[in-house]
């Protein structure tokens, strides 16, 4: 009896020791950094990285999309045209494609590789998928919880994110950069839910200005436009992607604004849409800060500007009609044409390579509602099809109904493209999952 009791206690002690070791390795081991809660009691600014915001990283320590360790082994399996990348909520993503290069014999081109990286909204893990394999790699497991959205730089080595610390009502803006861990090892998994305690990269960064209410990445992917609420006045700044070297270019009494930076000399600013309010779109010169009205007044306005700022796709809605209409606006001609398909401009994205092409997620069936308000609030939800519109020729093309290729209905938003327009990416508003659609094989 005594021997049995001793054996039981020994097993319990061993289990406790193992659990303690696992806890320490998971939260304090290489590549895993615990983010402390916001210190709101004393009013100090919360830095999720516990780093001096003036610290810098040498270029050699920062991974480019082509420098990231390739998933190993590469799974030889057919990649679906419509692909579920993450079944759990995502806090934003970025995508890029290496340019096509000539082969050694110069007789045929070698297709580049598309890379997409995203951050898990719950824990903050960063994952990577490539267009030539079904594997999904965990490239960082730094704990950075509740990042609700993010935009990435050109090389996918850093992102600007909006996160909500415990008890916060407003998002805190951060800059986060991927840096190699001391003992970097390449890992891959078949699902993005797996957690690896020795991910090849970790996140380091700093806080961005408090009360930032809008931001957009520069066309070359290395700068940022920031709209900051400064004592009730909107102040527009141009800065490096990490928030350094800020230069103020204008102030405005307007605060409820959506911002884009489609081309070098144009920042597009649109008032946030409501069915009972008229909205406007302005172009702002980032060098001079000069404003020019482009659209408006239009009820329920939402708008997206093409990458060369030659076209705008915009939608309108009104409280009286309870529907949505979509148009293509030619900036140089000052004329608008019916887009034929009706959807919210928030559900569209312009091509990066083919700048006259716009892709839109379009509801299969119209629903009477106040637009865009009811969609923003989640009062209405759609089952979408993907359409392509050529703004120059006014041709339209059904890319995919997607519903017959997925295991669920999709209300697409946050659409994006890689740099070569080979893949369309989007999130599902119903569950915040992340998807990709192969535009090359799909067409």
Structure description:
The protein is mainly β. The protein has a domain at 23-35 and 42-207. 8% of the residues lie in helices and 41% in strands. The protein has helices spanning 2-28, 373-377, 439-442; strands at residues 82-86, 90-97, 101-102, 109-110, 114-120, 126-130, 136-140, 147-152, 158-163, 172-180, 201-207, 212-217, 223-230, 233-240, 247-252, 257-263, 266-271, 278-284, 291-299, 302-305, 311-317, 324-330, 335-338, 348-350, 357-363, 384-390, 396-400, 412-417, 423-428, 434-438. Mean pLDDT is 82; it is low at 14-46, 51-63, 65-73, 101-110 and 191-196.
Envelope shape = globular
Within the largest sheet, what's the order of strands? 1-30-29-28
Q: Counting H and I runs of at least 4 residues, what is the number of helices?
A: 3
Termini distance? 74 Å
| Overall helicity | under 10%
DSSP, total strands? 30
User: Main beta sheet, described?
Assistant: 4 strands, antiparallel
Strand content: 35-45%
Mean pLDDT: 82
Uncertain residue ranges: 14-46, 51-63, 65-73, 101-110, 191-196
Rg is 24 Å
Brief sketch in words of this structure:
The chain is mainly β and 443 residues long. The protein is 8% helix and 41% strand. The protein is built from three helices and 30 strands.
């Amino acid at each position: 009896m005594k021997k049995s009791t001793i054996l039981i206690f020994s097993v319990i002690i061993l289990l406790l020791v193992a659990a303690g070791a696992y806890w320490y390795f998971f939260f304090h081991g290489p590549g895993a950094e615990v983010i402390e809660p916001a210190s709101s009691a004393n009013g100090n600014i919360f830095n999720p990285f516990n780093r001096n915001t003036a610290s810098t990283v040498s270029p050699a320590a920062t991974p480019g999309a082509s420098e990231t360790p390739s998933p190993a082994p590469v799974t030889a399996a057919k990649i679906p045209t419509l692909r579920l990348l993450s079944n759990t909520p995502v806090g934003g993503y970025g995508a890029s494609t290496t340019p096509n290069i000539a082969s050694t014999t110069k007789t045929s081109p070698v297709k580049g590789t598309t890379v997409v990286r995203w951050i898990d909204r719950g824990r903050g893990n960063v994952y990577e998928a490539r267009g030539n394999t079904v594997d999904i790699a965990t490239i960082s497991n730094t704990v950075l919880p509740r990042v609700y959205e993010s935009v990435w730089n050109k090389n996918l080595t850093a992102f600007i994110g909006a996160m909500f610390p415990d008890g916060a009502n407003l998002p805190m803006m951060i800059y986060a950069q991927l840096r190699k861990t001391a003992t970097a090892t390449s890992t891959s998994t078949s699902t993005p839910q797996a957690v690896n305690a020795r991910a090849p990269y970790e996140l380091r960064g700093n806080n961005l200005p408090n009360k930032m209410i809008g931001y957009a990445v520069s066309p070359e992917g290395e700068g940022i436009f920031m709209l900051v609420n400064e004592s009730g006045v909107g102040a527009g700044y141009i800065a490096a992607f990490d928030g350094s070297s800020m230069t103020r270019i204008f102030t405005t009494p307007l605060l409820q604004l959506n911002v884009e930076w489609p081309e070098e000399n144009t920042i597009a600013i649109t008032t946030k849409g409501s069915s009972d309010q008229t909205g406007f779109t302005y172009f702002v010169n980032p060098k001079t800060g000069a404003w020019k009205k482009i659209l408006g007044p239009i009820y329920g306005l939402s708008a997206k500007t093409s990458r060369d700022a030659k076209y705008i796709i915009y939608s309108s809605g009104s409280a009286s009609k309870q529907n949505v209409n979509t148009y293509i606006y030619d900036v140089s001609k000052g004329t608008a044409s019916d887009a034929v398909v009706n959807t919210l401009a928030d559900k569209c994205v312009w091509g990066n390579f083919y700048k006259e092409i716009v892709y839109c997620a379009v509801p299969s069936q119209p629903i009477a509602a106040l637009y865009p308000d009811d969609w923003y609030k989640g009062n209405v939800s759609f089952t979408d099809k993907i359409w392509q519109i050529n703004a120059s020729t006014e041709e339209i093309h059904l890319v995919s109904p997607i519903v017959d290729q997925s295991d669920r209905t999709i209300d697409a938003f946050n659409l994006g493209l890689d740099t070569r327009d080979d893949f369309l990416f989007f999130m599902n508003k119903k569950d915040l999952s992340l998807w990709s659609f192969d535009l090359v094989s799909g067409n």
